[in-house]
Automatic annotation (TrEMBL):
This is Ribosomal RNA large subunit methyltransferase H. S-adenosyl-L-methionine binds at L73, G104, L123, S124, P125, M126, T127, L128. Transmembrane segments: none annotated. Its main location: cytoplasm. Specifically methylates the pseudouridine at position 1915 (m3Psi1915) in 23S rRNA. The keyword Cytoplasm applies. It comes from Leeia aquatica. Its EC number is 2.1.1.177.
Length: 156
């Protein structure tokens, strides 16, 4: 099974790249994290937020693995604890399908992506920069995996 992070946004600061890479590297071969960075739609020219999200929607749909379990990150989504995430990870592994976690662009995700998602997930009620959300998500996926393996990384 593979975990896909499909993110609208490119060119992150080095510290973001290093933080993400550290947690992705720690994942086992049977549960890798694959990052897909999508080019954001150019702003300006009278484009509305809806038009921008619609253009990004096409890129997201093209990037989704076939028959994946789609999770859309959204501020109104479920707020799982780390333990709840580990249980979700267990369920996803039992299902055997790849999981795609999608972070939209600056304007968010097109409503169609949210409707297609099996679950909406919020990392925090606070607004996070996209790069930081990427690192946080990778770390939490790693932490959830270690919980399932009874590894001492997570202390409760």
């Amino acid at each position: 099974m593979k975990l896909w992070l499909i993110i609208v946004g490119q060119k992150q600061p080095d510290w973001i790249e290093a933080g993400y890479a550290e947690y992705a590297r720690r994942m086992p071969r049977e549960l890798t994290i694959q990052l897909v960075e999508l080019k954001p739609e150019k702003r300006g020219g009278g484009k509305t937020a809806e038009q921008i999200m619609a253009a990004e929607k096409g890129r997201i749909l093209d990037a989704l693995p076939r028959d994946c379990h789609l999770i859309a990150l959204d501020e109104r989504g479920a707020r799982w604890s780390t333990m709840e995430l580990s249980q979700q990870l267990r369920q996803w592994q039992q299902d055997g399908r790849d999981v795609a976690l999608v972070i939209g662009g600056a304007d968010g995700l097109d409503p169609e992506i949210k409707q297609r998602a099996r679950q909406l997930l919020s990392l925090s009620p606070m607004t996070l920069p996209h790069g930081l959300a990427r690192v946080l998500l990778a770390e939490q996926l790693y932490r959830a995996h270690t919980i399932l393996q009874n590894h001492p990384y997570h202390r409760e």
